[in-house]
Amino acid sequence: MIASGALKPGFSLPSERDLSKQLDVSRPSLREALLILESRGLLQARRGGGYDVTDVTGPIITDPLVHLLQRHPSAIDDILELRHGLECIAAQFAALRATDKDIKKLGSLVASMRKRKGEFDPFEDADRDADFHMSVAEASHNLALVHVTRGLFNLMRINMLRSREALYHQQDNVGLLDEQHGEIVKAIAARDPVAARKAANLHLSFVQASLREVTERQTSKAAVRSKRVPAKQQEDAGDPDGVAGDAP
Q: Is the pTM of this model over 0.85?
């Protein structure tokens, strides 16, 4: 159940008594199995008793990427390209394999994003955005894809927060993002893998293009500021007291 993704990281297992009844095994056999899973790093003992499912794939996948971004901030575009490929595949498979429960969950997530109250909150929307894309991956029912996407989950949240903060400078973008999510769900519900992949591709292409535009604008402003600083330093160097002297 852990390997299949049915039990997600952070999930708290029932008590030994309840779990032994659910699995129809003796408590000694169950206890031995739990200790084996703990020794393999799949479970973590809770204070006060019980076990939680650990995030095994997350650090393996995200740690190298986090270090990459720290050394090379420009690599964020590479992360977006990775997201782009993964999510197009996820949407395609979700259209082929999603259950009615999966589709209902996706529809609810899109509806919750559209029911914002007051000012737009990039932090809250980034969480909902990450939840939505993670749910698309889970609806693909591809075990490898689910694990890889879950490993990128925290990195995706950071990326989506940056995306939302950048895109929210233009209010129209908020509605466009909601519409794009809706089109992905619509294609999945229609069991149309081609349309689902196309909708996901359009969404990620829009995000990438918008972020590149924002990045270029910020780079341009930084370049202008850097040119002004040396000029100011030259002025100060020629006038130590900060007051212009009389011409000779």
A: no
